[in-house]
Request: fold
Amino acid sequence: MLCALSGEAPQVPVASRKSGAIFEKRLIESYIAENGRDPTTSEELTTDDLLELKSSRVVKPRPPTLTSIPSLLSVFQNEWDAMALETYSLRQQLSQTRQELSTALYQHDAAVRVIARLTREREEARDALSKVTVGPSAAATNGDRMQVDSQALPDEMAAKVQATQEKLSKTRRKRPVPEDWATTETIQHFQPGYTSMALHPGGRSIALDPTGDLVILGGGDGSAGIHSISQNKLVQALEGGQGQVTDTLWWESRAIIATASGQVIIFEDGASRAQFTSHSGRAAALALHPSGELLASVGVDKSYVFYDLSSLKPITQIFLDADLTTAAFHPDGHLFAAGTSRGQIKIFDVRSGAHAADLDASGAIQSLSFSENGTWLASASAGQSRVTIWNLRTAAALRDLEMGGPVSSVRWDYTGQFLAAAGPSGITVQSYSKATKEWSEPLRSAVPSVAIQWGPQARSLMSVNGAGVVTVLREGE
Reply:
């Protein structure tokens, strides 16, 4: 007979009524006192459940404590018993830990398989969405019908785009810098001259009207409004937006906003004149064609939409292979650029919808701005402190400008001399000299911003931060 705990022949053998296992009496009594269970079956066990087995044994005299070899051997025996109990407990814990680890590994493997399957199904759903075609019976907002997956613009709109390109391309290169335009020295003396209270917290854009006095702002809660800088007050509230206002712009005297729910809303005199819901997700950005008759919106549903502003109808929607984050029209109006969440800038011919070029940047594209020289495009990527200048003739990066902090918005001025960049760490202006073909930095301000716009004659900069505070930088007294 061997003890189930120590593996040795017991001096006082007992058997468990629950499991039938044989133990050394002193060992099992110690185990029961500590755990209250049978060590082999984990059933509840008391000393009354132990059955003493008869065996021949020699009665040992009680030795004096630690004064003789027999007493020392007894102490050693007690230590051995304790070690045997501890070893058995450790083996049980090791076995339980192995079972738990096996279960956790199995669950992790199952979770990985489920994630892989869901990812595949998501990509298949997106691919199917990009190929969907709306039939003739599908109606858009306000009863308008929208053509989906069409590439070319209608002939009438294509002719307007062509006429605008021919007109602007002839005069743009020969256009002199206006006499009253800001100079590098003027911008060097920019400092905060106006700061508003928190207007629309959580917004991401600011739009300035040609007079330099009225700005459109939107907030994270869908609220939007037109504010007067000179009067320092709300002029008109723009209601009807659902979700965060993602972008704003002016169309003549009308305000246009895009929202996270996919809405594009045109306001006139404070009232909604037209509303479009062409995007199935967030409408990320807006862009107005130089002709003033074509509006573009891009969204996370991987599509961009063109709207005819004369008829207030969407006329084409083109799906791509990535979420779209920002957009801009070329100064001549013949090219359209869309930034993606994958770090690509996709450029298209506006009239035909044909793909013209891809520019590969690093990180999701935050902002795009074409230079008035017609050959440069500035881009800012999420988390990057550099602004990349692209040469449209070679479809390659021309220069990286270090701005000293993350950049969320970039804007060229009307003459193409000055490039403003804004981010949470402040505002920076880079100046390019055509005579020396060199860059300089006339301004670096610590005004945190999420969006920026040039004022009239580039004599001021309008910015808004995440709290909805508008700051105007202009030449100090």
Observations:
- Residues 133-150 have pLDDT under 50 and may be disordered.
- The chain is about 20% helix and 35% strand.
